[in-house]
Design brief:
The protein has about 325 residues and is an all-alpha fold. It has 16 helices and no strands.
Length: about 325
């Protein structure tokens, strides 16, 4: 092999900027940014735009750091799962040590800078969120218990509380309700995914509920959690972050979500190949829209409130 071919091969296997961006899980980061922003803007205390922008930026960096630490630890199981095999670490584009270094460095940077930009409560919540996701969920729960996504889902539910804390310096009932909305939504969302990606989890040895207890039990759990989620989501309409717009959106979404969960529950496992997991995939897609539109409605209520149009007057 000539020097020229060696250099070409090296360039082809070196990590690109896009690989390092992928290491931070940008899709997950976008959800974190959105829900944190809603928490900040829905708070009863205004924040200077520069402080708000800097705070959301550092929350995003913290979310990215969590993603890098997750990819570092989970590289072995990511490599055998079709859905994750092309991630930067299992694909060999970013070395595990690099992913760890990026995750640790960005974690420290994000927490310190959020403390300087806003307050210690918000920074403390961010630090706890990173620790919970990287250590409690990724290193412990994910490979140990079928309740991994139930307990571990708390990590993804903290961002609106962090945004609320940036504005208020504390924790309020409304921020807890936003936390619970994501917390209760997470299990049916991921269990629907697990129903049609079960082979990946079996191959990787991840004890998802579908692997340890089977699809029938998983379908029962999806319905149960959806039934518990609906009154919580609708009831939020009658708090200071809700209002008639949110109520209308929530009633429609929860009606559709309950219908989808019921269809999954009554699903017969003996279906044709053409129809295989169509209901589950539809429910999973709806679950993404469900969370986005609920938080979008909270944001709209906050935007209308200064004009006397948001809330219940």
């Amino acid at each position: 092999m000539t020097d020229a071919s060696i250099n070409t091969h090296t360039l082809e296997t070196e990590a690109s900027f896009g690989d390092y961006v992928a290491l931070l899980k940008p899709r997950v980061m976008s959800l974190v940014v959105f829900t944190a922003l809603v928490g900040l803007l829905a708070a009863p205390v205004g924040v200077h735009p520069m402080i708000g922008f800097a705070s959301i930026l550092f929350i995003a960096v913290g979310a990215g750091a969590s993603g890098a630490l997750n990819m570092w630890w989970d590289a072995d199981i990511d490599a055998v799962m079709k859905r994750t095999a092309k991630r930067p670490v299992p694909a060999g584009k970013v070395a595990p040590g690099e992913a760890l270094a990026v995750g640790v460095a960005l974690s420290g940077f994000a927490v310190v800078m959020l403390a300087l930009a806003s307050n210690l409560v918000a920074a403390g919540l961010l630090a706890f969120t990173i620790l919970f996701y990287a250590v409690v969920y990724t290193m412990w729960l994910k490979r140990w218990t079928p309740q991994n996504i139930v307990i571990g889902g708390a990590a993804g539910a903290f961002p609106p509380m962090i945004g609320w804390a940036v504005a208020t310096g504390g924790i309020g009932l409304e921020s807890v309700l936003m936390f619970l909305l994501i917390f209760m939504w997470t299990p049916p969302h991921f269990w629907a995914l697990a129903l049609f990606m079960n082979a990946d989890y079996e191959k990787a040895g991840v004890p998802m509920l579908t692997v340890t207890h089977g699809r029938r039990v998983t379908r029962n759990h999806i319905l149960a959690y959806t039934v518990l989620l609906a009154p919580l989501a609708v009831g939020t309409a009658f708090t200071s972050i809700g209002g008639p717009v949110y109520l209308a959106v929530s009633l429609v979404l929860n009606g559709l979500f309950l219908l989808g969960a019921w269809r999954i529950w009554r699903r017969d496992e003996d279906v044709s190949q053409a129809d295989k997991y169509k209901v589950e995939k539809s429910f999973f897609g709806l679950s993404l829209l469900y969370l986005f539109l609920h938080f979008g409605a909270i944001l709209l209520e906050a935007a209308l409130r200064p004009y006397g149009l948001g809330g219940w007057g």
